[in-house]
Amino acid sequence: MDMDVILKRFEQPDEVREFAKGRFEIVRLGGMTIGRATYQPGWRWKDDVGAAAGATSCHVEHVGMVVSGCATAAMDDGRIIEMKAGDIFYVPPGHDSWVVGDEPYVSIHFLGADDYAAAKDDK
């Protein structure tokens, strides 16, 4: 069975989810949904994404890689981690997150992209 090669770019995403101080671009291919998060300095999940849904904690599971910048993930149980360029991360449900420093934070998401900041998402 011949299969076609598929090439896509985040510059022409299948979907874009925009929110205060950030955006999440979605590309779908090969049965996967991959996301690229871009957050500006001052972005914080509970203020810029969660507030619209009345949530103080993100309940999406994330696996990804930081492309540039730095962000903190603060787990509901009190653990705090810092993620910087080159880090590959797993962040379980139940967390807040914010940009650290004056540089935009960019990360690629291989798990959780379907549900993150979705209109149907009340997380």
Overall description:
This is Cupin. It comes from Sandarakinorhabdus cyanobacteriorum. Strand 5 (70-75) and strand 6 form a beta hairpin. This protein has one domain: Jelly Rolls. The chain has one helix at 45-48, and strands at 15-19, 22-29, 32-39, 62-68, 70-75, 80-84, 88-91, 95-99, 105-111. The model has no long low-confidence stretch (mean pLDDT 92). Strands 1-2-3-9-4-7 form a six-stranded antiparallel β-sheet, with no helix packed on it. A three-stranded antiparallel β-sheet has the order 6-5-8, with no helix packed on it. It is mainly beta. Helix content is 3%, strand content 45%.
Brief rundown of the structure:
The protein is mainly β and 123 residues long.
Can you give the mean pLDDT?
Answer: 92
Low-pLDDT runs of 5+ residues are none
**At the first level of CATH, what is the class?**
Mainly Beta
What is the name of the CATH superfamily? Jelly Rolls
Largest sheet: 6 strands, antiparallel
The CATH topology label is Jelly Rolls
Report the strand count: 9
Shape: globular
Name the beta content range. Answer: 35-45%
Distance between the termini: 41 Å
Question: How helical, in percent, are the residues?
Answer: under 10%
Radius of gyration: 14 Å
Class from helix and strand fractions: mainly beta
Number of helices: 1
Spatial order of the strands forming the largest sheet? 1-2-3-9-4-7
Please trace the helix and strand order, writing H or E for each element. EEEHEEEEEE
Structural domain count: 1
Which CATH-level-2 architecture?
Sandwich
Protein name: Cupin
InterPro entries: RmlC-like_jellyroll (IPR014710), RmlC_Cupin_sf (IPR011051)
